[in-house]
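Worked Example 4.2. Consider the chain below.
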Amino acid sequence: MSRILDDAEKEPTRDVARILLYLYGVVIALALTTAIGFTVAPNGIALSPVALNLQNLATFGALFVTIVPFYHGASMYMLNSYRNSAYTKKKGAALVDFFALALEGVVFYAMGTSIHFLDSFITWFIILLLIDLLWYGFTYFKAGDPEQAAPKWWPRINGGAILALLILSSTLAQFSVQVYAVLFAVATLRTVLDYSICYNYYFPQPTDAK
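Applying the procedure from the previous section yields the following structure tokens:
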């Protein structure tokens, strides 16, 4: 009986997570759709595969390999955090999570519209990672249980990516063509490290389920 009551108390907190993730997912979908449009149909008509711009494809690839783990990671964090009502008893926690996700969604949309503008894309990419660092700081200090905070490797991985992007941005004038390939490589490496190091967080095993 106590377990049933406990689950009933936690259900509203789960609803909060679902609502926030639904709104976040809508913005992410809009950002991805916009990026696809700018890449595949820059003039409103879809290009043939052989006519696609390789530089735009590299930029879109950098966005895609970043947007997947960001949405996946945010979803896991929200579901894990709001599974326990203790976290949501902290006033304002849900609002901070909402605004952090909303800001990241807006930045992803800005990245999607910057497919043709490398300098702008890299700048928004750096802003995205900085916002995520600030959000991680909030999750770390506000979580009552350290295990409810986001993975400790996230700020390290994103910090390294920011450094790489800053270096990349400074070389735009000298190596404009090669930068596209390096940008895609940096984004891909960031995602590979993220999924490799934090695999159990993204794909929890049954024995780790709480």
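The first helix runs from residue 2 to 40. The chain has one domain: 2-208. Compare this with Example 4.1 before moving on.
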